[in-house]
Design brief:
By secondary structure, this protein is an alpha+beta fold. It has three helices and nine strands; from the N terminus they run ββαββαββαβββ. The chain has one domain. A nine-stranded antiparallel beta sheet has the order 7-1-2-6-5-3-4-9-8. The mean pLDDT is 89.
């Protein structure tokens, strides 16, 4: 005898992410394609460093040697989220290391520093 399971009845309905350039959604940093195409390009990893005193996350290309030397960085993996080219970066491990960061879904303030190719995200 076979059992049939309907997993949809046990999976809570997820809200849609906002249509904003940078946001935290389900413990993932979502970056819209227009910004990701310029900042991340085709990289599958980025460098990240968090400054607690400023509630600031700095992100840079994994090929940026100067950024690596200036900051104590970690590597985060980048995934293409949808056909539009939006990118998703898992923040679960990062949030586990910094439990004081609010992990609720929300739009995040950001500043893209084009000449240095650094994305500065405020996590407050």
């Amino acid at each position: 005898m076979e059992r049939i399971f309907n997993l949809n009845q046990h999976t809570p309905k997820q809200p849609k992410p906002a249509d904003e350039p940078v946001q935290l959604f389900n413990e993932h940093l979502l970056i819209k394609s227009f910004l990701a195409d310029e900042f991340i390009k085709d990289s599958m990893q980025i460098l990240a460093v968090y400054y607690k005193d400023r509630n600031t996350l700095l992100l840079a290309s994994d090929k940026d040697e100067a950024f690596k030397k200036l900051h104590k960085t970690i590597l985060l993996f980048v995934k293409v989220k949808n056909i539009e080219g939006d990118r998703s970066i898992s923040m679960q491990e990062f949030l586990a290391d910094w439990p004081e960061i609010n992990s609720e879904n929300r739009v995040l303030e950001f500043e893209y520093q084009s000449p240095m190719n650094i994305l500065k995200v405020t996590l407050a």
